[in-house]
């Protein structure tokens, strides 16, 4: 029998080979096209994530002014591809995060032609010496396997942007210039990290505070300017600053103060950018220094200045504090620095003091009944005091102390009285940009007659004038004078509160808490002025009320650097003239209105401590306390002279008056001047041993 070959299995084998080939081709295509495409998507998404994290890092840096603690920001430099059963991934991509120029002393930010408005601070900010500050950039450079067109993301001078080969795309706004506010944060330290993992960048404040220094141009022909090196050309900085560039330079009606933005070729691929500000304008300069990586440096003392006036007055037999402040080149306080003092009269209690955590140094100037009536010069220095002392150099300060035979303490309330925040009787009724033309706002100034700076925390407003029932600005934006219900212009720091929809009167406003928008508490130097803007008063939700001849009573609560709280109360009248009949009620400055439960079998009392003043003189001060039912607990009438201190303990006639059925003590202070004008301040004490001033519980009005 003959057997033939069986070839039936060959078709199966050929099919298997073909199928295997198809699988190989499909896998190769998946490996060559699908995997890179998926990985590119992973890399693109990671790059978006890093851009967001660089913006978080930027926010941490620009918030260093006023931020005393270190902030940590995580940045994911690389990423991981998804796991695959058969296909293979390239190695995980990484990225490089590095600083550029931050340790190169030749890469500077420079401020020119800036002269401080405060005399002793002007020894350092003299307008003729350019001030240089090293700074640079932080950049992220990705090292992807597939996403080859990924940008380098850069932070510099408050801006984050993507740098492509074809151009740049900004990811954030700039914070260097905002109207008359100039905020400069330099970058210090060195860092270079390349990894696929995340890294934590610690942003450490090396010099910071919320302090601002008022500066202006030195002459009518010079301009305050800020110059710096940047990877962005001038055209892109002009776009970033578009809202700040004055389209009509010199027009004082505009809110833009940048006169020009120019650029020139700098070293390497950098541009030298210069922002020129308009002349004859006072700018608020705030500066800080942020450290990243390693090698960042602390700032040492640069100059010494006064906190308050360079001229003080002390009555013979009294004492006066002279407060100084040690600052670095960024105008921020430096602690633990020894300051030397001397005076020919020998009235300084000590000749050496060290700066505290706020950079402040306090010297006590003591006089007695034998101290000669004279004007003495007191010298202070960060260096040794010798015959070569020059009070006009940055590290030296001269203070003139006038010793008088009388009891005045300086101040500016008409009779040379120290009266806390003294109203300057200059209120104007003005209109803002709302649709009507009615002057429904009030602007006025006050003088901080203390030698120390103060921080204004609260203000209460009351009015007994016809139809003055609400305050509502009804315009935007809300962060400018005349465009918010309350704006206080302080020489150290401004503050404002915008109340959405306005508010009824009377009202108590906690400046850094209340409102729809706000910007912290204003601060005013000793012996310096503050400006208050209130817009606009209305009978309801109607058009504004003409505030000419109408009055609003203010109770302004403020604190000293040591935490002590006081409150000044006065009434302002729009467009009041000195030739008009005297309608001005007395002014009062309260240190305490405090309940004391005492010890043992003593009766409770209320301790009053305040100063009262009026140009026509004080007729009477009546102090009254009543219980919850309105029954009088005690009352007394005093007849102080204008400018004198009322320090009186009002006996409540019983022990534990705040117990049982009585849960409060109502306090009323009635001030009457010699022209018959009356000022009433009221408050309710609900807890034992509490102070109405500390509790912000005192509100004043005119009847």
TrEMBL record:
Signal peptide stretch: none
Which residue stretches belong to region Disordered? 338-359
Under InterPro entries, the record lists: Ig-like_fold, Invasin/intimin_cell_adhesion
Query: Residue ranges under compositional bias (Polar residues)?
Result: 349-359
Task: Please name the Gene3D superfamilies in this protein's record.
Answer: Immunoglobulins
Output this protein's name.
Big-1 domain-containing protein
């Amino acid at each position: 029998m003959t057997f033939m070959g069986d070839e039936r299995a060959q078709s199966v084998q050929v099919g298997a080979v073909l199928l295997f080939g198809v699988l190989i081709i499909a896998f190769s295509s998946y490996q060559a096209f699908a995997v890179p495409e998926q990985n590119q998507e992973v890399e693109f998404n990671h790059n978006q994530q890093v851009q967001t994290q660089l913006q978080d890092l930027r926010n941490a840096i620009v918030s260093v002014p006023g931020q005393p603690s270190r902030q940590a920001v995580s940045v994911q430099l690389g990423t991981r591809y998804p796991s695959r059963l058969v296909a293979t991934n390239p190695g995980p991509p990484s990225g490089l995060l590095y600083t550029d120029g931050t340790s190169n002393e030749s890469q500077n930010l420079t401020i020119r032609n800036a002269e401080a408005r405060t005399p002793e601070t002007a020894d350092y900010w003299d307008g003729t010496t350019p001030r240089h500050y090293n700074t640079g950039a932080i950049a992220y450079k990705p090292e992807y396997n597939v996403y080859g067109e990924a940008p380098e993301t850069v932070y510099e001078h408050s801006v984050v942007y993507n740098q492509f080969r074809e151009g740049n795309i900004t990811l954030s706004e700039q914070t260097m210039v905002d109207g008359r506010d100039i905020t400069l944060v330099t970058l210090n330290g060195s860092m270079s990290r390349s990894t696929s993992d995340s890294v934590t960048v610690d942003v450490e404040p090396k010099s910071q505070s919320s302090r601002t220094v008022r500066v202006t141009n030195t002459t009518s022909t010079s301009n305050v300017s800020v110059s710096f090196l940047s990877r962005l050309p001038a055209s892109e900085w002009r776009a970033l600053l578009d809202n700040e560039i004055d389209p009509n330079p010199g027009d004082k009606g505009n809110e833009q103060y940048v006169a020009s933005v120019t650029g020139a070729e700098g070293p390497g691929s950098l541009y030298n950018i210069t922002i020129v500000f308009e002349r004859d304008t006072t700018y608020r300069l705030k500066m800080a220094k942020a450290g990243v990586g390693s090698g960042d440096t602390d700032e040492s003392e640069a100059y010494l200045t006064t906190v308050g006036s360079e001229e003080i007055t002390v009555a013979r037999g009294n004492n006066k504090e002279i407060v100084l402040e040690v600052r670095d080149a960024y105008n921020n306080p430096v602690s633990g620095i020894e300051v030397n003092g001397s005076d020919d009269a020998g009235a300084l209690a000590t000749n050496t003091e060290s700066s505290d955590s706020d950079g402040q140094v306090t010297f006590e100037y003591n006089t007695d009944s034998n101290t000669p009536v004279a004007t003495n010069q007191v010298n202070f220095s960060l260096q040794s005091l010798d015959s070569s002392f020059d009070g006009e150099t940055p590290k030296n300060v001269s203070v003139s102390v006038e010793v008088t035979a009388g009891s005045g303490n300086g101040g500016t309330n008409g009779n040379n009285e120290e009266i806390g925040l003294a109203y300057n009787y200059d209120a104007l009724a003005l209109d803002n940009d709302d649709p009507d033309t009615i002057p429904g706002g009030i602007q006025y100034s006050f003088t901080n007659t203390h030698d120390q700076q103060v921080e204004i925390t609260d203000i209460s407003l009351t009015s007994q004038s016809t139809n003055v029932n609400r305050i509502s600005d009804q315009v935007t934006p809300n962060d400018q004078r005349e465009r918010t219900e309350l704006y206080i212009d302080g020489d150290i720091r401004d503050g404002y509160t915008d109340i959405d929809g306005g508010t009824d009167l009377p009202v108590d406003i906690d400046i850094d808490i209340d409102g729809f928008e706000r910007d912290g508490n204003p601060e005013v130097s000793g012996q310096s002025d503050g400006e208050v803007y209130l817009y606009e008063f209305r009978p309801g939700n109607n058009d504004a009320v003409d505030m000419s001849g109408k009055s609003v009573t203010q109770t302004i609560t403020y604190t000293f650097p040591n935490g002590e709280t006081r409150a000044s109360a006065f009434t302002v009248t729009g467009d009041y003239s000195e030739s008009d009949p005297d309608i001005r009620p007395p002014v009062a400055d309260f240190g305490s209105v405090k309940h004391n439960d005492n010890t043992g079998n003593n009766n409770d009392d209320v301790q009053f401590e305040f100063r009262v003043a009026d140009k026509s003189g004080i007729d009477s001060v009546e102090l009254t306390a009543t219980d919850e039912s309105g029954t009088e607990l005690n009352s007394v009438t005093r007849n102080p002279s204008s400018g004198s201190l009322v320090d009186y303990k009002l006996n409540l006639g019983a022990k534990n008056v705040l117990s049982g059925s009585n849960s409060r003590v109502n306090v009323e202070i009635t001030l009457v001047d010699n022209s018959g004008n009356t000022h009433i301040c009221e408050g309710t004490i609900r807890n034992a041993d509490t102070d109405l001033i500390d509790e912000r519980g005192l509100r004043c009005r005119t009847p």
